[in-house]
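I hope you will forgive my troubling you with a question about protein structure. The full record is reproduced below for your convenience:

——
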Amino acid sequence: MNPTASANRQMVLIGASYAQEWQNPKLPGYDVTNKGIGGQESSDLRARFERDVIALQPDTVMIWGHYNDVVRAKPENMAAAKRKAQENYQAMIEQARAAGITPILVTELTIPIPDTMKEKLMSFIGSVRGKTDYRVQKNTEIKALNGWLRDYAKAHNIKLLDLEKALDSGNGTRKVEYTRSDNSHVSPTGYDAIAKYVASQLI
């Protein structure tokens, strides 16, 4: 995959729909090949890592994707789902490094919760009834895995792109304008913000 016509390094972006819909971003110093596939979990990324990353022999791989692991896991299976995601990240990183490919990790995006009086009232009513908002539940687990990624990246000298914090609204969740109407997928404005942040981290 190492080109003769380009001085840029080669990067493969692997992930689920968030990665897929980013298409082929223009990042300083890199030519990006997008290998995102919508709907996948980290186990799916691991299963195709050899074919979609190692076989292409890029200089770098950006691994983005545990959102689906979390949002699809039932509460009673959440701990196991998070452990499996951690194992998948470790395996992909080991594969990449064994092949001479530099891994880059990406923290996952949270589910937006608008900072409005209506949301605060609904949250209060829910707490009185002893119920936790679905978005709060899932964000708690997404952030827990993000925290593990940060620690793992630091301990193993791996570059980490902290999209959770880069797209944060100030209330601990993603800015509403960075999300499409389904309250999950990334809006064009969100991808603009991601591209600017990632570019700033790669220079």
